Amino acid sequence: DEMAEYLPQTLNELQQVNGFGKAKIDAYGQQFLDIILTYCEQHQLRSRISEKTPKRLRKEKSTSLKTDTKAESFRLYKEGKPVADIAKERNLTTQTIEGHLAYYVQRGDINIEELINHDKLILIGQAIKDFNGGSITPIKEKLGNNVSFGEIRLAIAWSLFKHRNDGH
To answer: How sure is the predictor about 121, in pLDDT bands with cuts at 50, 70 and 90?
Structure first.
């Protein structure tokens, strides 16, 4: 439908059509373009691809070593950057960064009270004391908007660290 509507005239334009990635263009792209170009020539039509909302292109898979995303967040945190700043710098959500840091809280590399104040930690601790895995949504609903999902995950990570090191 998009080929007929937008009449792409080059391989680059064809790549803007949904369903056409590099593999399909390499295999069939020129065959489709030959048909479209012939039709456009016969009917004095031009490409309308500029009218199309751009599709999200897939990121090329990097052949270089992939950055350990949790380690990168931890490094920035250890440099003294606040979670919100790390999220902005890395173009990730605050919740994602909190998830990365929860990994290090559970290992004991970060003291939980650097991330959650003591009173809030006690409040969350009471709500998670019977938590045995699964969805944390019921805990979030019980705690309300003053506590984030990320803070709950951080508190759970801290609880797991404490239990592992208390011999429980």
So the answer is: very high
Whether 60 and 47 have beta carbons less than 8 Å apart is answered as no
For residue 11, give every residue at least 6 positions away whose Cβ sits within 8 Å of its Cβ, in sequence order, or none.
25, 29, 30, 33
Percentage of residues of the chain with pLDDT beyond 90: 51
pLDDT tens, 127-145?
998 888 888 999 999 999 8
Residues 149, 140: contact at Cβ < 8 Å? yes
User: 103 Cβ partners below 8 Å, 6+ apart?
Assistant: 70, 74, 157
The whole model's pTM is what?
A: 0.58
Q: What is the pLDDT of residue 21?
A: 86
CA 119 → CA 3, 85, 105, 122, 125, distances in Å?
Answer: 60, 24, 18, 5, 10
Question: Under a CB-based contact definition with an 8 Å cutoff, are residues 70 and 100 in contact?
Answer: yes
Compute CA 52 distance to the chain's CA centroid, rounded to the nearest angstrom. 26
74/101 Cα distance (integer angstroms): 6
Helices (H), the chain: 2-6, 11-14, 22-24, 30-42, 69-78, 83-90, 94-107, 118-128, 137-143, 149-166
Q: Residue 58: what pLDDT?
A: 59
